[in-house]
User: What shape does this take?
Amino acid sequence: MKEFWDERFRTEEFIYGEHPNEFIAEFIDGKKPGYGFFPGEGEGRNAVYAALKGWQCDCFDFSEEGRNKAMKLARKYDVSLTYDLGDITKKSLPENQYDAVFLTFLHIHEVYRPQVHRELIKALRPGGHIVMEVFDKKQIQMNTGGPKSIEMLYSPEILQEDFRDTHIIKNDLDLRYLEEGAHHTGEAYTIQFIARK
Assistant: This one.
């Protein structure tokens, strides 16, 4: 999997674009700056946007090529990011550290997903938010992005269960039009989710 993402990110162009995910940007625009964690951040578009808005940003991914692109983007916009490499399914996170955790199309196999989500909740400060946009299982029939394995796609019911110990604010599945670089363009079934610890 690391090799797959290194190969995908090994291009001059930003394959998902330089602009943030609209749902993530909308949340950031509505909050005072805080300390954010961006797992699976890839080329850095969301974290760079948050940093421009005054957030302190910790990024995490297993692609070194993704990190290189993210740091290049950060230099372009004159912001600083912390960016560590590793496997999110094996990472133990600090307790009560972040004001928000942002996940943009980070898809984790169902074997590991519940544990990763528990770690993300643990890492939030009381009152902190999980904010994510992910592909629903219905996306398997579409050709507009996302994993081609049903075990790596989500549903509102899955997120309801994984985050049952939080206050769920939004858990909405819809057919939306994506315009995020060559790999996320067109109509797609996505879930927009926000929960508060």
Observations:
- Residues 60 and 154 are 21 Å apart (CA to CA).
- The chain has one domain: 2-196.
